[in-house]
């Protein structure tokens, strides 16, 4: 795996600055969309800028590389390790390496605007995975996204079905406050309706240990809670450990992910329901769509949602695989 | 106004000073903030002052307390160890991997302790033999270990099933969580070592003035090496407790987050950053304060965006009040 340090950035900045000034002098800003198709005989190089090193990102990268190898596409990779500044320098590095397309699993969609602008100026198309909300869609080649609002809606609908419309106290253990977590929570509340009384809502910053603490505190603050939405499976395992220690196995856990461990937990009844939207699908679809878009194939899809499956005990055997 | 405050504080000290143990009178300011936070929370949430909730808080701070105890030792000698959180992450990863591959749970735990101690020894060696400033040396190892922890678990959660649950979920006398008992024993032992052993006094002397300590015949290098090793060993123990409590080694566990909490607790507890003074009692109060604040944020359902503001504010007030007494002395 390739990685680019800040030292590297220093050598890149003059080059990038030069590229920017040349672009400005020529007054020709190319957003990459107007480029002519890459002929099918020519090899495509994808520059993949990953956002983190946890399970989701590791699986995403593996899936992307595996599908690329199958299609004869070359992949260069870099990792931004949750640092938006490093993400920008990684994008700069990919521009210097003259890849055909930059695929970004962004650290923070709000701080990606600069990266999109730089790639546009260099005339290299940029493609997003995971999230693309808030980005000007005309500036990017396309995106494969996981619709977190759909996840919230599905879980809300499951809740309504499980309670049979009767009132119930519900708690939410969220990720970090911000776009994705808030979107999921909002959609969940709306879809669960007014009979579901959300009495507790606190962040656990996507950390399993923190989720365990928050769940313990939840039991103290709101002992009558019957349903808990935990926004990813790693945190859900932390919450489940807290409930088990307090012998509160009656609380139903609703979560999101679709990892092998998560699906297993649904099978054994530790989680009530999870929504599977896998990095394997995202990675594979990203390669397929990027290649199709670059070659201007008629089947090319600019924006696509990754398929989502609501996994309960009944269909857990048929849950899609999370990793390659 | 200030003179009034001074007399009031002096009078307060005169009145309660005789009744409280020395370790506590030193931290009256910190105790006051802790009580205040407790009162506000209890006023607004009936759940706060229940036995179950207080046991929860103690369980949530146990790992931090173990790390902070080790850090107090290192910091009294004028050193600092920024790698303890990452050591805990690495240890948790090693223990989980060993258990997942079929090693006996207690053997794996012992191996974890050994890994922690070995890393601590390495830190100590870099600091004493190569004379690298401890801040730089341990910041570097912290970065290395943070990456190593992810490599060990391959960026994924490694489950240990219900192994080690005597430690993670066990209770002593049917009520007190096992991790709390371990943390209490560690803190008491550290306190005794600092107060009553030549090793502990040597740490203070080195923190006060390293050259004077050397001239007085104190084995400075050996003591420092041992201090960092003990720090690493305790961080290893923290890692074992983490994995036992979580039931898995998971990315993002331990690391910088845990480290900063431990450093904050020690500093709020009145241990001098330049060494030469510090108490475990202060550190424990600092750890408990941080735990109570986190607990009350959840109980009072403080909006997520305000939580950092609240935590930072309490830290600031606690640090200031804890140093007031020193200024008025």
Automatic annotation (TrEMBL), chain A:
Keywords: Signal
Membership in a protein family: Belongs to the bacterial solute-binding protein 2 family.
Start and end residues of each Periplasmic binding protein domain: 53-297
Compartment(s) where it occurs, according to its Swiss-Prot or TrEMBL record: Cell envelope
Gene3D superfamilies attached to this UniProt entry: 3.40.50.2300
A GO cellular component annotation in the UniProt record: cell envelope
Name of the protein in question: Substrate-binding domain-containing protein
Predominant localisation class: other
Superkingdom: Bacteria
PANTHER family assigned to the protein according to its UniProt record, in alphabetical order: D-ALLOSE-BINDING PERIPLASMIC PROTEIN-RELATED (PTHR46847:SF1)
GO MF term list: carbohydrate binding
From TrEMBL, chain B:
GO CC aspect terms: plasma membrane
UniProt keyword Protease present: no
GO molecular function: transmembrane transporter activity
Subcellular location, record wording: Cell membrane
Coiled-coil ranges (or none): none
The keyword Glycosyltransferase is annotated on this UniProt entry: no
Main location (coarse class): membrane
Spans traversing the lipid bilayer: 57-75, 106-126, 133-153, 173-194, 225-248, 254-273
InterPro entries: ABC_transp_permease
Membrane topology of the entry: Multi-pass membrane protein
Protein keywords: Cell membrane, Membrane, Transmembrane, Transmembrane helix
Classification via PANTHER family: ABC TRANSPORTER PERMEASE PROTEIN YPHD-RELATED-RELATED, RIBOSE IMPORT PERMEASE PROTEIN RBSC
Protein name: ABC transporter permease
Organism: Actinomadura soli
């Amino acid at each position: 795996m390739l990685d680019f340090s800040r030292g590297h950035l220093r050598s890149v900045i003059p080059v990038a600055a030069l590229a920017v000034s040349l672009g400005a002098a020529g007054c020709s800003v190319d957003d990459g969309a107007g480029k002519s198709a890459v002929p099918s005989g020519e090899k495509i190089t994808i520059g993949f800028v990953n956002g983190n090193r946890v399970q989701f990102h590791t699986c995403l990268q593996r899936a992307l590389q595996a599908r690329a190898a199958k299609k004869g596409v070359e992949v260069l990779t870099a990792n931004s390790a949750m640092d938006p500044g490093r993400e920008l320098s990684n994008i700069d590095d990919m521009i210097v390496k003259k890849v055909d397309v930059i695929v970004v699993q962004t650290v923070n969609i709000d701080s990606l605007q600069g990266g999109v602008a730089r790639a546009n100026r260099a005339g290299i198309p940029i493609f997003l995975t995971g999230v693309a909300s808030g980005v000007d869609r005309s500036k990017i080649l396309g995106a494969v996204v996981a619709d977190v609002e759909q996840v919230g809606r599905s879980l809300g609908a499951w809740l309504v079905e499980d309670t049979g419309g009767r009132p119930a106290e519900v708690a939410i253990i969220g990720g970090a406050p911000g776009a994705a977590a808030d979107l999921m929570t909002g959609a969940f509340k709306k879809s669960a309706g007014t009979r579901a009384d959300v009495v507790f809502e606190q962040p656990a910053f996507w950390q399993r240990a923190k989720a365990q603490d928050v769940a313990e505190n939840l039991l103290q603050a709101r002992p009558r809670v019957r349903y808990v939405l935990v926004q990813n499976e790693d945190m859900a395992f932390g919450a489940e450990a807290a409930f088990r220690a307090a012998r509160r196995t009656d609380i139903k856990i609703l979560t999101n992910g679709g990892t092998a461990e998560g699906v297993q937990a649904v099978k054994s009844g530790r989680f009530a329901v999870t929504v599977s939207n896998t990095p394997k699908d995202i990675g594979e679809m990203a390669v397929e769509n990027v290649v199709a878009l670059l070659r201007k194939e008629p089947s090319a899809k600019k924006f696509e949602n990754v398929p989502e499956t609501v996994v309960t005990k009944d269909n857990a055997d048929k849950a899609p695989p999370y990793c390659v | 106004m200030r003179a009034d405050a001074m007399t009031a504080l002096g009078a307060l000290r005169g009145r309660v000073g005789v009744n409280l143990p020395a370790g506590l009178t030193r931290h009256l300011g910190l105790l006051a903030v802790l009580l205040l936070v407790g009162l506000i929370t209890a006023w607004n949430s009936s759940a706060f002052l229940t036995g179950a909730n207080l046991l929860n808080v103690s369980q949530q701070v146990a790992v931090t307390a173990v790390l902070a105890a080790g850090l107090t030792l290192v910091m009294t000698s004028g050193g600092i160890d920024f790698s303890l959180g990452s050591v805990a992450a690495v240890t948790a990863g090693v223990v989980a991997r060993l258990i997942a591959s079929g090693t006996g749970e207690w053997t794996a735990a012992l191996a974890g302790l050994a890994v922690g101690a070995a890393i601590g020894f390495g830190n100590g060696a870099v600091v004493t033999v190569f004379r690298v400033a401890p801040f730089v040396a341990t910041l570097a190892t912290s970065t290395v270990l943070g990456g190593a922890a992810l490599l060990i678990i391959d960026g994924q959660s490694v489950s240990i099933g219900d192994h080690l649950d005597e430690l993670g979920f066990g209770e002593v006398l049917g009520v007190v969580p096992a991790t709390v008992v371990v943390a209490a024993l560690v803190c008491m032992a550290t306190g005794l070592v600092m107060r009553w052993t030549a090793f502990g006094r040597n740490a203070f002397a080195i923190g006060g003035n390293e050259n004077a300590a050397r001239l007085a015949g104190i084995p400075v290098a050996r003591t420092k090496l041992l201090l960092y090793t003990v720090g690493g060993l305790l961080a290893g123990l923290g890692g074992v407790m983490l994995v036992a409590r979580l039931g898995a080694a998971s990315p993002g566990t331990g690391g910088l987050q845990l480290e900063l909490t431990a450093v904050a607790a020690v500093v709020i507890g009145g241990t001098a950053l330049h060494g030469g003074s510090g108490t475990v009692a202060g550190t424990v109060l600092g750890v408990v304060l941080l735990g109570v604040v986190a607990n009350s944020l959840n109980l009072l359902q403080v909006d997520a965006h305000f939580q950092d503001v609240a935590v930072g504010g309490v830290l600031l007030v606690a640090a200031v009040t804890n140093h007031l007494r020193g200024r008025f002395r």
